Amino acid sequence: MPAGVAVRGSELAHVTVGGGGFGITGAVEGMAIAALLNALTTTVTIKTVVRIQAADSELFLLNTKMTPEVLRIELSRPLGLIRNAQPGPAPTDTDEPTSPSALIDQLAKLASMLDSGLLTRQEFDHLKDQLITGSKPEPNQAPT
Where along the chain do its domains lie? Predict the structure, then answer.
């Protein structure tokens, strides 16, 4: 089933207009001051929500930087790809590295996760041992 994509948003502008005075000179001065103050104090709030819906899930993204029209243009290609995406094959349990280079790649990824703090040394050692020995982790098995 193709994914449904919707982009909805709104722009709210808060503007205060004022100015005036006595005579033409006062009116011109007041309008100039009011225009300057309005330019300095006008705020625009943009809230654009992108909803991506699949058969069994839904994803909402909030963007506060771009208007709905600009965001729709920016996201048209990726959203089109999502809309036309076909479901891929289900992952299998045979995704174990089969070649030495695949094993090295997996170990490099684990080392990167250790360096970035995503894994503790204990978790790294446990996962490294599983990769090297080819054993699969049991569900909900915590590293020892």
Answer: 4-83, 89-144
